[in-house]
Amino acid sequence: MRNTVQANLFILASLALAFIASCGGPEYPNCEEDGDCKAGEFCVNNLCQQCRTDQDCGPGQTCASGACQATPGYCASNADCAEGEQCENNVCVQQTTSEVAPPPPPPGACQLEAVYFGFDSSTLDDSARNQLNSVSQCVQSRGIKAVHLTGLTDPRGTEEYNMALGDRRAQSAKTYLKSLGLAVDLSASSMGEELASGADESGWGRDRRVDVREK
User: What is the pTM (predicted TM-score) of this model?
Assistant: First the structure.
């Protein structure tokens, strides 16, 4: 009799343990619902995974076999692409241009000469204004329809400062040409110190300029 009671108690204890284990849910990474997985994971086909769809992953990633993986060729800006490529719709593609280089000026025709500036300055002095007067006359005599102004600096100073200084120089020249009544398409940009070649004051003086070209 005593042995029978002990056997029954053992069976009941085993059933209780099995019931408790079944109430604890599946063992990770197995799952029945998202709540069985770690934070940020999803229950897919009874297995905890990092993602269900691409929308569960961050920019530049796709969901492959339940994991977020980098998308080949993805870009957020031109800086993510190789030289000669540009970022379009988050894909690096070969750069194309529809611009056609203007024909060279006829022999003996006037030239669009650069305009020079003082150290750390975007102010036009008398020499710079005289040069821009000549630029305006040349543009009109040659019938040029569009002109681009590129601001440059010497290599001293930070890259960010020089880019801003080059832009101020280009904008200063553009404003003056407009004040002369030059009715053509005028655009301006900066290259900062990128084309600087001087190693002393003589060379730096040549770096401090606005290049003028037909476009």
Answer: 0.54
